[in-house]
Target: GH16 domain-containing protein
Amino acid sequence: MPLRDHFNQLKAKAEELNRKHNLLPIGQNSAHQTYVPQGHQGYPGQQPQYQGQWQPQWQPQGPQPNHYDRPPAAPPVPLHSRPSQSGASPEYQQYPQVYWRMNPQAAVSVDFEQKQGHGDPYGWGNDELENYTSHSENSFYTADGKLIVRAISRPGHPDPEARFTSARLVTRQTLAQTRGCLTAWLTLPRAEGIWPAFWMLPREPFEWPHEGEVDIAESWNGEIDNHSCLHWGSYVREDLQKHLVRKTPLPDATHRPVRFDFVWNCENIPYRNDGKSAGGGRLMWCIDGRSIMKNLMPAGTRPIQDWCVLLNVAMGGTVCKGKTPPEGIYDMVVHGLQMSDGMEGGWGRFEHEWQNCPDGIVTY
Model:
C-alpha cells in the first residue's frame, strides 16, 4: 500500500475515534479556551454598558483541560466494605461513599451562597480590590459541568464598582460529619495581583479567627507554591504559633486539574461548655493523592461538622503586596467538588499516612 494511502487510512480512523468520543479535532487543542456560561452571551440580560477599549487580554498558557477531563467516578463499594447493618462505618472502607457533590444541572445559587460587596465592612479585609457579585459573568456552570469562578480586571471601566469583579461562593452544605474527606479538582489562575483560594470557615455567624480557618489551595502574585494552612489566631506576635503552613510547589496548576483532599477525623472529640471543640481532632491535607500536612484541631475552634467550603478569586490588597492584576479574565475552574465519608483507601490508609505526614510549621 502506498505510504500516502496508509496515512489517509490512519487519519480517517483517528477522526472516527474523535467523533465517537467527542474529542477535539485533529491538530487542535484548547490552549485558548474561553468558558462561556450556559445560554449566556456577553453580560447578563443586557449589552455591556462599558464600550471602551477593554477586551480580555489574558489567555491560559499551555494546554487546558478539555471537556473529557472530568473527575473519575467513584467505583461501586464492595459488599465487604459497606457499613454494617448497625450503621457502624467499616474501618477499612476502600471506596468511600459520596454524601454531597456540587450539582451543575442547577443554578449556582442552589449549592452556594454568592456573597456580594467588597471591603472591610464585610469582614473580608486586606484592602482588596474586588467587588464580589452574583452575576453570571463571575460564577457559572459550563455546559460540560464545570464551575467557573471568574475574576475580571478592567481598570479603565467608568464605574468603580465594575473595575475589579469576582465571585465568593460559600457552600450551603456543611461538612456535617465528624469524619470524612472534602475533595476538589481545580485548575487555578496565576498572575500578579491574583489570589485564588479553596478554603473553609465555620458556618455563619462565627468569630474569626478564634473559631478557626483552614486553607486547602491558595497562592498569590503568580507564585507557584500552594499554601496549605491552619489558622486560629490574630496576626500579632503572641499568636504566631497559631498559624501553621506547608508550601507545595505546583508549577503546572494553571494547565491541569489538581486534586486537593482535606481529610478530618474528629470522632469522640469532647466539647467545652461553650460548645467549642476541646481540641484533638486530626486534620490532613493531600495534593494529588499525597499527604503533605497534618495537624490536630486546636481547642476553642468550632466543631468540624459546622464548617462550610469557600471558593473565591481575590485581587490586589496587602496579601498581594498592593499589586494590581493586569487587565483581563482570570478563571478558577472547578472540575469537581464533593464530600465523602472517608479518603480513598479507607481509614486504614489514613492511619498509615498520619504516621508519615509532616506537621504544619510556623512561617510568619
The chain has one domain: 91-362. Residues 91-362 form a domain with the Jelly Rolls fold (CATH 2.60.120.200). The chain has a mean pLDDT of 81.
